[in-house]
Amino acid sequence: MLILTNSDLERLVSMRDAIEAVEEAFGKLAQGLVQMPERTIMAVGDGYILQMPCYIEGLGIATTKIVSTYPENPRRGLPTTPAWIVVNDAETGMVEAVLEATYLTALRTGAVTAVAARYLAPRESRVAAVIGCGFQGRFQAWALTEVFHLQTLWAYDISRERLRRFVEEMGERLDVEILEAESAAQAVGEADIIVTATTSKEPVIRRSWIGEEAHISAIGSFQPDHRELDTETVKEAKLVVDSRKAALREAGDILIPMREGAITEDHIYAELGELVLGLKPGRVEGDGLTIFKSVGLAIQDSAVASLALKRWREHLE
Questions:
Q1: Same domain, 125 and 259
Q2: Choosing from 28, 65, 238, 293, which is the catalytic residue?
Q3: Do residue 135 and residue 249 come from a single domain?
Q4: Is 280 a catalytic residue?
Q5: Residues of the domain holding 127
Q6: Of 1, 105, 110, 167, which residue is 20 to 30 A from 293 by alpha carbon distance?
């Protein structure tokens, strides 16, 4: 049985590769070529442990990701979101590989933000903002630079130490000016694209801080009582989700405004796969604020895992 580590995956799959694989997977989801049972979530200790199974037709594998989210892990010297993927051969059911997936999870989550931004962000976006400068925030910034010619990236985190490290590390890695913001409001004020990558229970940005034509990717919170965006932001925006079913089960950014009576289910304009297939248009003339709300889908993991295994086999030939 093959075991691939985070360092193996770093060598095998680039961000650009992941973006293309994830985009294709969302197209297959919209075509009905995916089996993706509802993921399970267990509250254990001070965190959550999730199991996410998936089968995408044509890949030849089925995957199950085991991922945990423990906000206190950085204090223990551990990642907030450690993960592993078990890969079964689709023909025999035998376990073919186990992938350490902390890196893969961050990579595919950055990738889906880039895919959504391709369809929803202003075409000439030059300024971005990242709220939440942990491990995932780095991949969000990286992904955006793969699909936009950014000039400036504002960063903000409630931890000044995390913010400082982010600016130092990503400033060396990315060909973009990275600036430390004193507040989230300052970070998003001039941004064309905004990413929220936090574990916050309360809104980290508000409508009054944001420009008229910004695009937001809210990828952090995935619990019904957690949200990163305030109600006014969600109410005003053209709203796209990774999965309607999953969003209406897990996304507090949507469920809380619904409970308040500010929006209904019909406020969800489309799933991302519908944009990928051209079933609905993304950003069109006259669109103002747009939001992509992601709770994370197993198709993202399966698509990138399949690509990693393909590259591994090519390496052996």
A1: yes
A2: 65
A3: yes
A4: no
A5: 117-296
A6: 167
